[in-house]
Amino acid sequence: YLGWQDDDAAAVLEAGRINLRDSPGYAYNPTDFFRDNALRTYATVDPASLRDNRMGSVMLRAQHLLPRGSLAVVFSPELDDSPSDSSFSLDLGSTNARDRGQLSWGHRLSEKVNAELLLYKEAGSSVRFGASFSALVSDAVVVYAEGTHSSEPDLLSRALMLPAPSQSGNRLNAGLSYTTTTRLSLTAEYQYNGFALDRAGWETLQVAGPDAQGAYYSQALALQDNAGQQTIFLHAVQRDLAIKNLDLTALLKLNRTDNSRMFWLDLRYRLQKFDISLRVQRNVGNEGSEFGIVPISTSAGAVVTAYF
Predict the structure, then answer these.
(1) pLDDT tens across 230-262, in order?
(2) pTM of the predicted model, to two decimals?
(3) Potential cystine with 171: which of 30, 124, 140, 252 (Cβ 3.0-4.6 Å)?
């Protein structure tokens, strides 16, 4: 990784593997165009942790800071077209399998409102348009929304590698976060994926059998896209629960298309060089649904993380 900036830090150039994240949403990020195939491991289901610890894409990024915002352009070249699961592989075939570019303009509309417009293009597809905003309603409440419009094959066709024409569609996410004086943070999101299966499409997928179902949900996971057309996400974090450095995190993801749901609970104690975490996950749904297809319905475990 190489970086340069001028004396006023108004112009910035970067080259290397960069984890680019353009999105105000917590769990679903339509304007995060570089999320596809960027995850090598799934050590947690917490979307914020997955986003922070994924692979970056090799790219060249130029950014110019404006009085009330910024203008940035990104080019990520094709370096390899074969993904690798070798332990020490750079796996450029996952993150740099085609030429990609993005132009983004961020603007601070006021002291409490920020907005961003994006144009994204990859080889073999049309331009995708994105927009997002976030607003500080009060000292305790933040609202945000983001959306994209694109023309691409639907998720099922991509999963089953079926020849299918591109279709126009939208992805949307709208949410609200509330933080109390006791350091309890609550977040609720409504998520819409116009390229995922609706109820009728999901019922057709059940007839196709477990192989097609597994391919569909695996593709959604790899692309970090929602498998259901409509999803509700709830997230809660209590910092310093009862004692200092003890945090409790809970999340619920409800697929409104197939009515399956996933609940996850994490109790974490933070030390200077270690984190000790106790986790419980519960998957509920009919056979063939997003969370009903998971082989293990209930799991619990402990994780120790060392920092060095």
Answers:
(1) 999 999 999 999 899 999 999 999 999 999 999
(2) 0.93
(3) 30
